[in-house]
Design goal:
- GO terms for molecular function: guanyl-nucleotide exchange factor activity.
- This is Alpha-tubulin suppressor-like RCC1 family protein.
- One of its GO terms (cellular component) is cytoplasm.
- It contains two helices and 28 strands.
- It is mostly beta strands.
- It has a four-stranded antiparallel sheet with strand order 1-2-3-4, with no helix packed on it. The protein has a four-stranded antiparallel sheet with strand order 5-6-7-8, with no helix packed on it.
- It is globular and about 55 Å long.
Length: about 400
């Protein structure tokens, strides 16, 4: 009996061993196959992520918009007035919001973007019809404005639009002459043709700059600080476009000042360009050279960011909230180099800054109470923090 039991146990154990061994082999094979599939999926995800790159950044009053090379438009920060153009969404982290987009321009409390078919869309504050719709109601989702548009630029209460044919159109407030219309016109409810033969536009706080095809620079609007650069003793408000300079290829406009770069890469400034509030520094009423070898400029309300031809980054103005990202709160009364390396594009706005590096990463600093720095907090930063782009599923 014992021998039989022993033999039975031996045979049974052998069968179990063979069966279990076969199962292990199957399991191992299955796991190996799944690992291979997962690796392939991960590789595809990595490749897809690597193929999506930032092509432009636009900082608004309290929000930021980022355009990717797959034509998706991402946003973060305030949505109180409809700035992000997505009902119910206000995020301190980037979210994909709109698609089929080829250009974007953020402004105070609103956003504009141009689709692939060159149609212009706007969203956000519209109390002065600055979105381009006459009802003066805020828009929390994008509304179409017009067709055949190549660029748009928004001031505080007015908007300039550049069409494919070189026409400059305007809409919104003309209280200070920022649309170059008669002082009898306070608000333009719908877009209207302002000028022809225009190649670039820039809306400042309450003034406007345009470059014509011949390279001449023209301006209109508020001139209390000399931001139009047409000399002292001139009226505080100019209600028609007046010539400022020739041979201009880059322009930027802030709060009470203007910057432009001429063909020889010299940077000129006019108005209260130092932007030190409460200081005894006198504004420029005629343009002055403040830096040479300049290739890129952007103007915030009270600070400016400059990239020179050697790719170095320079700043000027107010640094109260850490706008310069240099780890300090020290203002600059003249252009000063800061050492944030390998920056290829910058965007300045009210009180924060965006820096796009050569490796495709986006970094931001400054005022962050609405989450406009995109780091998931509402803490101000005086040093750059990297913005991480994840899908909604990845954020969860």
């Amino acid at each position: 009996m014992f021998k039989f039991q022993s033999s039975f146990i031996f045979i049974f154990s052998l069968l179990i061993s063979i069966l279990f061994s076969g199962c292990c082999t199957c399991v191992d094979k299955y796991i190996a196959e799944q690992e291979s599939i997962n690796e392939e999926i991960s590789s595809q995800i990595d490749n897809n992520q690597n193929s999506i790159e930032i092509i432009s950044i636009s900082a608004g009053g309290n929000h930021t918009m980022v355009l990717m090379n797959d034509n998706s438009l991402w946003g973060f920060g305030m949505q109180k007035n409809g700035e992000l153009g997505a009902t119910g969404i206000s995020s301190m982290k980037p979210q994909p919001l709109h698609y089929d987009v080829k250009a974007v321009s953020s402004a105070v409390q609103r956003t504009f973007f141009i689709k692939q078919d060159n149609s212009l869309w706007g969203t956000g504050a519209n109390d002065y019809s600055q979105i381009g719709v006459p009802d003066k109601l805020n828009y929390y989702e994008p509304v179409k404005i017009m067709d055949d548009v190549v660029k748009v630029s928004g001031g505080t209460f007015h908007t300039l639009i550049l069409k494919n044919n070189g026409e400059c159109w305007g809409v919104g407030s003309n209280v200070w002459g920022q649309l170059g219309l008669s002082d009898n016109i306070q608000i333009l409810d719908e877009p209207q043709l302002l000028l022809k033969n225009v190649i670039d536009i820039e809306a400042g706080d309450m003034h406007s700059l345009i470059i014509k095809k011949d390279g001449s620079l023209w301006g209109t609007g508020k001139n209390a600080n000399g931001q139009l650069g047409i000399g002292s003793g001139t009226p505080e408000d100019i209600f028609n476009f007046s010539k400022i300079a020739e041979g201009v290829n880059l322009i930027a406009a802030g709060y009470g000042y203007s910057l432009y770069v001429t063909y020889d890469s010299k940077l000129w400034a006019t108005g209260n360009w130092q932007q030190l509030m409460g200081s005894e520094l006198n504004p420029f009423f005629t343009p002055q050279i403040i830096l040479e070898d300049v290739s890129y400029i952007t103007a915030g309300s009270h600070h400016s960011l400059i990239i020179r031809t050697d790719c170095s980054l320079w700043v000027c103005g107010v640094n109260k909230n850490g706008e310069f990202g240099d780890g300090t709160y020290i203002d600059r009364i003249a252009p000063d180099q800061i050492h944030i390396e390998n920056v290829k594009m910058v965007s300045a706005t009210g009180s924060f800054s965006a820096f796009l590096k050569e490796d495709g990463t986006l970094w931001m600093s400054g005022y962050n109470h609405s989450g406009q720095l995109g780091d998931g907090t509402n803490i101000d930063r005086n040093y750059p923090v990297q913005v991480i782009f994840q899908t909604l599923e990845e954020q969860e």
